């Protein structure tokens, strides 16, 4: 579906909470699911502690209210984490509305890769820190400061990068590099927050960390994607939020970036000054493997024949429906569906995304969780055909006022069915990964499998987007020998200002024609106005 919805599928997968270390990755679905795993937190470390004195001081369990401040801080940090993810998911829709090619969309899709590749630098974040300042704050504070400053600077440049008012199209290469760095910083912040979440709360309340993750990231993604696209749309604001129509939305991407950049700086300053890390943890409980040992362990796991075969399976399993998932939403925008309407489809899906894992987990809790994966795959492949029909049907129901209500009902039902098949496969894979992971190295083992699963969703989507333009044949209306091979030609031939009986000539005949000419490969497209 649309990147506003389906882009959440490509980048974030949460490993079960563990005290081994903070190598966490997220996966193809929104953070409405947090799994439990790895056994009791700190169990092995507790067993290695020396015996207590004869008259120990017994501290009773701490309730959630006693750590309400820490819970709210975690929630705020995860909300901030979701903002860059939501903004990155909204950019493909903005690019599509500006007639970016699918090759350019494919290039921009690399932005979603850092969350799938965190495993490459997570051991570094876990092992290198300033002891006085705090293990997690050593990475969290500078990373969030850089994110805030980066967002403020980007707010001054984003209009130029998107091509607004400059008479040129978006600079996709610069946008990709910029947002890739943006997501890299967000992924690094995610590693630090996930690690701190396990030690910020007491053992009795550590389960609230996954709740903060789920609620916070979902809220942040909603703010950065759905809310932004709605407030950025002039048509949405004029229809629902204004009494007098205006040519622009209530906010722009530049305004949005500046506001959240300031929020990042203020929040980070407060955390650096007032929040202290838990000093009561024993060194054994906080100890992690060295960087070299972690990478050696990962390599030894990959060399295992069964693991290698399974990795090949999940790296290629999503090829069959990657095109439908990655391209459908962009094609709908291309056919005239407002991008903010597609983004708002994510709202009624939130309850479904919360309930589905609870239902599906009953079927994946047995000895063969992959059976659910196999059974869901044919239905997801068939939904790809249904999405193709939806794209074909879209221009046929379009009218001057937009699209009828029943069209959006069909799109919403299609997306709901897509979510059921997607979550069935996702929960099954997560259950299988948890079942086969060696408990002695569960964190590293689970993280490796989740990383490979993430990559199995990212690379097919990128390739599918890259192949759309070469495999698409276009023909100009009224000029059958012309291919309309680029976005500008396609826009001109579909514009209502241009006659349906268009003529393409190899050069401009006189100055009158030059007044109305759009230069496309040294050709002049004659509109009906020229013949008045």
TrEMBL record:
Q: Which GO terms describe its biological process?
A: acetyl-CoA transmembrane transport
Instruction: Check the record and name the Pfam families matching this protein.
Output: Acatn (PF13000)
Give one GO molecular function term: acetyl-CoA transmembrane transporter activity
* Statement: the UniProt record of this protein carries the keyword DNA-binding: no
Which residues does the annotated region (Disordered) include? 1-21
Give me the segments passing through the membrane. Answer: 71-95, 107-130, 139-156, 176-198, 219-236, 256-274, 295-321, 341-360, 372-393, 405-429
Quote the catalytic activity from the record. Answer: acetyl-CoA(in) = acetyl-CoA(out)
Tell me if Endoplasmic reticulum is a UniProt keyword of this record. Answer: yes
Question: Which subcellular locations apply to this protein?
Answer: Endoplasmic reticulum membrane
Indicate how the chain sits in the lipid bilayer.
Multi-pass membrane protein
Q: Which domain of life is it from?
A: Eukaryota
Keywords in UniProt for this one? Endoplasmic reticulum, Glycoprotein, Membrane, Phosphoprotein, Transmembrane, Transmembrane helix, Transport
Assembly mode: Homodimerizes.
Similarity comment: family membership: Belongs to the SLC33A transporter family.
What protein am I looking at? Answer: Acetyl-coenzyme A transporter 1
What is the originating organism of this protein? Answer: Phasianus colchicus
